[in-house]
Amino acid sequence: MTDFIRARSSGQKVERMSEIKKAADAQFSERPYHEITLTTVAERLSWSRANLYKYVTTKEEIFLELTGDKWREYFTALKAAFPPGCGYSAEVAAEVWAGILNANCEHLKYSSILCSIIETNVTIEKLAAFKKDFHRQIDELTVLFYQNFGISEKKAYELIMTVHYHAVGMYGYCNAGPMVMDALERAGVKLEIPDFREKMKDFIYMNLRFVLKTEN
What we know:
Elements lengths: L9 H19 L9 H8 L3 H4 L6 H23 L8 H14 L2 H6 L12 H26 L3 H22 L3 H9 L9 H20 L1
Helix pairs in contact: 1-2, 1-4, 4-5, 4-7, 5-10, 7-8, 8-10
C-alpha cells in the first residue's frame, strides 16, 4: 500500500510505474487476468482510479510493460548461461536452457495472453516500442546461439522461437488451474501433469540435435 504522491520528475514517474506494475503483478499471481481491473490495481495501491489514470489508461498498458520486464529477465539469464564460446554439447545445452526456462517461467504466463489480449488494447506507440526492444534482444540472442552452436543465423532464430512457443503451451499445460483440474475430474479424465523442466529439456535436446545434424 502506497500513499499517492504526484510524480514531479522522470525518476519519480519511473518509481510510480514500478509501483503500479508491482501491484498488477501481485494480483496476476492471485487471480485470473479478467478479474484484474484498473480499479483493483488502484485499490491495491490505496490510490484513486483518477490518480492511476495519470500514468496509464488501460490495464493492458501495465501488462505490456510487465511482459517486457519478464522477457528481459529471461533473456539476461539465458545470455549469462550461454557465454560466448561455452562449447556446450546438445545434452548440456538442453539441461541448462530448461533450467533457465524453469527459473524464469513467469514470462511464459504473460506471453500466453500477449498476442490475443495484451497487445489489443495499447497505443501503437507503446506497442512499437515493445516490439523494438523485444526483437533487439532476440537478435542479440540469435547471434550468440549461432556462434556457440555453429549453425546459421536463420536456424538459431527458429530454434529460439520454436522453444519459446512450445514452452508457452507446456507451461500452461503443466500449471492448469483449479477449475481446469476440477473439470477434468468431473469429466472422468485422468491426467498426469508432467514435469515442466524435464519436458522442456527433452524438447530442446530433440530440436537442437536435429538442427546440428542438418546444419553440419
